C-alpha cells in the first residue's frame, strides 16, 4: 500500500470512529449493543454452543467449590448409565461402590422432557506455570464443563443449573459418609491450604442408647426436629438458621456421646474446633466460613480453651523445662492462641455466622459457673442442657441396651442406691460391661447387676468417709477461730481478692 492509500485508510477509520461516537450519542437506542448482539448472532451460525466451566477450587484460599461437589454428585447418577470411563469410590456405609465420571469423558443430559439437551465433561489440566510461592499451588486443575445450545441459555441458566445443584446437594448428603472435621494444624504443608481435615464419622451413639430421662430426651429430640425443619421459620423471623447448645455437667456424664447422637439423628457433619490451635480472631472467622451447612460445630471444654474473663494473661514466663526443650529441639514454644472472648462472640452470632445456614454450635463444659454470662446468654446458647449423674431412668436405658432386660429383682436395690449416691453414667456403663465376653455377648446379667451394686455401695462408702473427713476439718477450723479470734490477715486478703475481682 502506498502513502496515499495509508492516509486514505487512516482518514476513513477516523471518520468511522467519529460517526460511531456521534451515533452512540444521538441514536435513540444503543447502537453498540445492537451491533455486538448482531455479531454474536452471526458467530452462532457457525458455532451455536455455549460453555460454562466449574473449577474444583475457587477463591483466594482455594476452597473446594460447593458447586463442583454438587455437580460431581449429580453426575454420579447420570454418568453411571452413560459414561464409558468411570471412577469408583466407597459409598456411605463402606459396603457399596459409588461411580462418577472419569476424566476426559462426556455425558449427555436431557432436561424439560427432553426439550433441552446438555453435555457435561470432566477435565483436568496440569499446572505448567512454575510457582515461587512459599505455599505451592495445586499441580492439577480439575473442572467440569457444561455445553449447551445458545437457544437454551435461559432455561439452562435459570432452571437446569438450579435443578442440578439442588439434586446434587441432596444426593451428596444421601450418599456421602458423614465426616468428622478438625481444624488442621498442618495447613501450611497442605497444598490446598485447607483449614479443616476430616475422617469418616462412624460413632454409633443414638438417642436410644443415651442414658437420660425419657422426658428430657424427648424435649431435645423435638427441639432438633424443629430446628431441622425450620428454614422458612428462621427466614420469616429474620434470624440466621443456627442454634446454640450448651452441654454442661461432670466428666463422664455423656456430653460427647450426646453430640454424636445429635449428629446421627440430624445426619449432620461434625466440626470439632480446637480453639487453642486457632491463631487469632481472623483465623477463627476463616474456619467458620469454610464450614458447610448441615453441620454441628463443637467446642469442647470451652472453659479450658479460652481466657473467658476477657483479660489476656500476661505473657507467661517460660519454665526451665520449656527452655531446655526449646534448646534441644530448636523449636520455640508454640504461641498461645490470641482468640478473644469478643472474637468468639462474633463467631457465634456476628454477621459471618449467618453464612451457610443450618448449623448448630455446641459448647461443652464441666464448670458452667466459670463461663462468662455473655457467652452463654439465651440467643447465643439457645438451649442449656445439664448432663448429670446417673438416675434410675438412665440406668434402665443401660440395662435394656447392655443386658437386654427391662426388669430384674435387683432393680429395686439399684434404684435405692442410685437415689443415695452420685455415680456417672460412664461408671455405670463400665460396671455393666464387666461380664460381657469378647464377642459382645452378655454372659450373666445377674453378675453384671451385682457388680454395679458393689460399685454403688463402694461409692456410698467413699462418700460417707469424705463427708466425715470434711466435718472434722470444719470442726478444727471453727475451733481455731474461737481460740485465736477472727483471722485479720485472712479477712484482709479475702477483701483484697474481692476488691480485685470487682475492679476486673
Ligand atoms: N448419658 C450417657 N448415656 C450413654 N452412655 C454414656 C452416657 N454418659 C457416659 N456414657 C458412656 O461413658 C463414656 C464417656 O462419656 P462421654 O465422653 O460422652 O462423657 P463426657 O461428659 O463427654 O466426658 P468429658 O467431660 O470427660 O469429656 C462414653 O463412651 C459412653 O459410653
TrEMBL record:
<feature type="region of interest" description="Disordered">
    <location>
        <begin position="475"/>
        <end position="504"/>
    </location>
</feature>
<dbReference type="InterPro" id="IPR058017">
    <property type="entry name" value="At3g28540-like_C"/>
</dbReference>
<keyword id="KW-0175">Coiled coil</keyword>
<protein>
    <recommendedName>
        <fullName>AAA+ ATPase domain-containing protein</fullName>
    </recommendedName>
</protein>
<dbReference type="GO" id="GO:0016887">
    <property type="term" value="F:ATP hydrolysis activity"/>
</dbReference>
<feature type="compositionally biased region" description="Basic and acidic residues">
    <location>
        <begin position="314"/>
        <end position="334"/>
    </location>
</feature>
<dbReference type="InterPro" id="IPR050747">
    <property type="entry name" value="Mitochondrial_chaperone_BCS1"/>
</dbReference>
<dbReference type="InterPro" id="IPR025753">
    <property type="entry name" value="AAA_N_dom"/>
</dbReference>
<dbReference type="InterPro" id="IPR003593">
    <property type="entry name" value="AAA+_ATPase"/>
</dbReference>
<keyword id="KW-0067">ATP-binding</keyword>
<feature type="domain" description="AAA+ ATPase">
    <location>
        <begin position="241"/>
        <end position="391"/>
    </location>
</feature>
<dbReference type="Pfam" id="PF25568">
    <property type="entry name" value="AAA_lid_At3g28540"/>
</dbReference>
<feature type="coiled-coil region">
    <location>
        <begin position="442"/>
        <end position="473"/>
    </location>
</feature>
<dbReference type="GO" id="GO:0006950">
    <property type="term" value="P:response to stress"/>
</dbReference>
<dbReference type="InterPro" id="IPR003960">
    <property type="entry name" value="ATPase_AAA_CS"/>
</dbReference>
<feature type="region of interest" description="Disordered">
    <location>
        <begin position="311"/>
        <end position="334"/>
    </location>
</feature>
<comment type="similarity">
    <text>Belongs to the AAA ATPase family. BCS1 subfamily.</text>
</comment>
<dbReference type="Pfam" id="PF14363">
    <property type="entry name" value="AAA_assoc"/>
</dbReference>
<dbReference type="InterPro" id="IPR003959">
    <property type="entry name" value="ATPase_AAA_core"/>
</dbReference>
<keyword id="KW-0547">Nucleotide-binding</keyword>
<dbReference type="InterPro" id="IPR027417">
    <property type="entry name" value="P-loop_NTPase"/>
</dbReference>
<dbReference type="GO" id="GO:0005524">
    <property type="term" value="F:ATP binding"/>
</dbReference>
<keyword id="KW-0460">Magnesium</keyword>
<dbReference type="Pfam" id="PF00004">
    <property type="entry name" value="AAA"/>
</dbReference>
Amino acid at each position: 500500500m502506498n502513502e496515499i492509500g495509508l492516509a486514505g485508510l487512516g482518514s476513513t477509520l477516523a471518520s468511522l470512529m467519529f460517526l460511531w461516537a456521534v451515533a452512540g450519542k444521538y441514536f435513540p437506542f444503543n447502537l453498540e449493543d445492537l451491533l455486538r448482539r448482531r455479531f454474536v448472532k452471526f458467530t452462532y451460525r457457525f458455532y451455536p454452543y455455549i460453555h460454562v466451566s466449574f473449577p474444583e477450587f475457587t477463591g483466594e484460599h482455594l476452597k473446594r467449590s460447593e458447586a463442583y461437589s454438587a455437580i460431581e454428585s449429580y453426575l454420579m447418577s447420570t454418568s453411571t448409565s452413560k459414561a464409558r470411563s468411570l471412577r469408583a469410590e466407597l459409598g456411605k456405609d463402606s459396603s457399596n461402590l459409588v461411580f462418577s465420571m472419569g476424566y476426559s469423558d462426556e455425558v449427555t443430559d436431557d432436561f424439560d422432557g427432553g426439550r433441552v439437551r446438555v453435555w457435561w465433561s470432566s477435565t483436568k489440566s496440569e499446572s505448567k506455570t512454575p510457582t515461587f510461592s512459599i505455599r505451592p499451588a495445586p499441580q492439577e486443575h480439575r473442572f467440569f464443563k457444561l455445553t449447551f445450545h445458545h437457544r437454551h441459555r435461559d432455561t439452562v441458566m435459570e432452571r437446569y443449573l438450579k435443578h442440578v445443584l439442588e439434586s446434587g446437594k441432596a444426593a451428596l448428603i444421601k450418599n456421602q459418609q458423614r465426616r468428622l472435621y478438625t481444624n488442621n494444624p498442618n495447613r501450611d504443608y497442605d497444598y490446598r491450604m485447607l483449614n479443616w481435615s476430616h475422617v469418616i464419622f462412624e460413632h454409633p451413639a443414638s438417642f436410644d442408647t443415651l442414658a437420660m430421662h425419657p422426658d428430657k430426651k424427648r424435649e431435645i429430640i423435638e427441639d432438633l426436629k424443629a430446628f431441622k425443619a425450620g428454614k422458612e421459620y428462621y427466614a420469616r423471623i429474620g434470624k440466621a438458621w443456627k442454634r446454640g447448645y450448651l452441654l454442661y455437667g461432670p466428666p463422664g456424664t455423656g456430653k460427647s456421646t450426646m453430640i454424636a447422637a445429635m449428629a446421627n439423628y440430624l445426619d449432620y457433619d461434625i466440626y470439632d474446633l480446637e480453639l487453642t490451635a486457632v491463631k487469632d480472631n481472623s483465623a477463627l472467622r476463616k474456619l467458620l466460613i469454610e464450614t458447610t451447612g448441615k453441620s454441628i460445630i463443637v467446642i469442647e471444654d470451652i472453659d479450658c480453651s479460652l481466657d473467658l474473663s476477657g483479660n489476656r494473661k500476661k505473657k507467661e514466663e517460660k519454665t526451665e523445662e520449656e527452655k531446655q526443650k526449646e534448646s534441644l529441639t530448636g523449636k520455640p514454644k508454640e504461641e498461645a492462641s490470641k482468640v478473644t472472648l469478643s472474637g468468639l462472640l462474633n463467631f457465634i452470632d456476628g454477621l459471618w455466622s449467618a453464612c451457610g445456614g443450618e448449623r448448630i454450635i455446641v459448647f461443652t463444659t464441666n464448670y458452667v459457673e466459670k463461663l462468662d454470662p455473655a457467652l452463654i446468654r439465651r440467643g447465643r446458647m439457645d438451649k442449656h442442657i445439664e448432663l448429670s449423674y446417673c438416675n434410675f431412668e438412665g440406668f434402665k436405658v443401660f440395662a435394656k441396651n447392655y443386658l437386654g432386660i427391662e426388669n430384674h429383682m435387683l432393680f429395686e436395690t439399684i434404684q435405692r442406691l442410685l437415689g443415695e449416691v452420685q455415680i456417672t453414667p460412664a461408671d455405670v456403663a463400665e460396671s455393666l460391661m464387666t461380664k460381657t465376653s469378647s464377642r459382645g455377648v452378655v454372659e450373666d446379667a445377674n453378675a453384671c447387676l451385682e457388680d454395679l451394686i458393689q460399685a454403688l455401695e463402694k461409692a456410698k462408702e467413699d462418700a460417707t468417709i469424705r463427708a466425715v473427713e470434711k466435718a472434722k476439718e470444719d470442726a478444727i477450723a471453727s475451733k481455731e477461730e474461737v481460740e485465736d479470734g477472727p483471722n485479720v490477715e485472712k479477712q484482709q486478703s479475702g477483701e483484697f481478692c474481692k476488691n480485685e475481682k470487682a475492679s476486673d
